[in-house]
Every structure is written in C-alpha cells, then in structure tokens.
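> call design_seq(struct)
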C-alpha cells in the first residue's frame, strides 16, 4: 500500500503540486507592484549621453594619443573638415 501511495506522489505534475501547496486561490493572490527607480525615458537619455561621451572620449584618444595631435583639437571644425577631406580623397 505504501508503494502505491509513493507512486501517486511521484506522478503529480508541477501544477498540481503548486495548487496543493498554495492554500490561496488565484483570485486572492496579490501581485507585486514593481517600482522603478529610474523611469524608462530617463534610462534612454542616460544611455544616449553615455554613448555621446564615449564618442568624444574615443575621438580624443584617437586623435590626441594615437594620432599625435592635441586632444582639444577635436572640438575644432577645421580638424573635422580635414579628416573628411582625407577620407573622401579619390
């Protein structure tokens, strides 16, 4: 008799086990409300700002350190026109 009882216990599905172990019906359960610390729109702005700052830092390192120029020259228009002219040169 105990072997048969053990087989019945083993044959329970996960859903049956959850229903038996949780005495509250599904309608009475409370859903946990998620409170976001940073709203989604603020996250998007932060990511965009970080991308912009990484582009500036990459240009400064690339032009100033690797290219043997001055890092502050990346903010000059003449530097960028010179770079574009080098790229588009045929």
């Amino acid at each position: 008799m105990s072997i048969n009882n053990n087989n019945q216990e083993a044959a329970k599905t996960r859903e049956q086990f959850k229903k038996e172990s949780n005495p509250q019906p599904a309608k009475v359960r409370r859903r946990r409300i998620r409170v976001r610390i940073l709203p989604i729109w603020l996250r998007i702005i932060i990511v965009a700002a970080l991308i912009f700052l990484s582009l500036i830092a990459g240009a400064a390192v690339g032009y100033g350190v690797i290219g043997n120029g001055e890092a502050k020259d990346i903010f000059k228009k003449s530097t960028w026109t010179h770079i574009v002219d080098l790229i588009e040169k045929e």
